[in-house]
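Hypothesis: this fold can be encoded by more than one sequence.
Test: take the structure tokens below, design a sequence, compare later.
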């Protein structure tokens, strides 16, 4: 088989999962929905949803030209019954708590430090959120550049999982 088993007649559905759905997964959802240009549709959820989206996450998105129009943190209830093309965890605890999803989605772990866990000054927190956003953006750029329709299922899964090994780029001045 030389082609992917993913559908090509509709946008690919991606679910980003982290623990609180207050920072990393919300950032990933926002960025992929913009750069995926209708080819991907992203949502996000948390294994243990926080009370609210972290304001530093929203601020970082806006600094880099992404305007958050997302949703309050939510859990996985109901989402684990939907069919997804990709399920990507962005923190280790979410990876351990991630349920089984129907339809055999491509499962990948893109673990990264939690910027919300940093204790420090507001400026240090901003730098941590910028670093997280840049790492997520780099990984999403790699995802959207994959020749998904030309890869076998096994090759696609290997490539998407490999994206999780991409490190943190140095923060630069915010641009779109």
């Amino acid at each position: 088989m030389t082609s992917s088993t993913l559908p090509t007649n509709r946008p690919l559905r991606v679910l980003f999962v982290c623990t609180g759905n207050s920072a990393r997964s919300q950032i990933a959802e926002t960025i992929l929905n913009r750069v995926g240009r209708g080819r991907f549709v992203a949502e996000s959820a948390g294994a243990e949803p926080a009370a609210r989206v972290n304001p530093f996450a929203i601020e970082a998105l806006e600094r880099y030209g992404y305007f958050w129009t997302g949703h309050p943190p939510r859990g996985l209830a109901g989402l684990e019954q939907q069919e997804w093309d990709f399920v990507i965890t962005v923190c280790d605890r979410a990876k351990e708590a991630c349920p089984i999803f129907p339809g055999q989605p491509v499962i990948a772990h893109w673990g990264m430090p939690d910027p919300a866990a940093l204790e420090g000054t507001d400026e240090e927190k901003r730098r941590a959120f910028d670093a997280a956003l840049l790492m997520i953006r780099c990984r999403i750029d790699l995802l959207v550049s994959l020749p998904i329709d030309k890869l076998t299922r096994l090759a696609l899964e290997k490539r998407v999982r490999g994206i999780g090994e991409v490190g943190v780029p140095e923060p630069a001045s915010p641009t779109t």
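Strands lie at 12-18, 40-46, 86-89, 106-109. The radius of gyration is 15 Å.
Hypothesis status: open.
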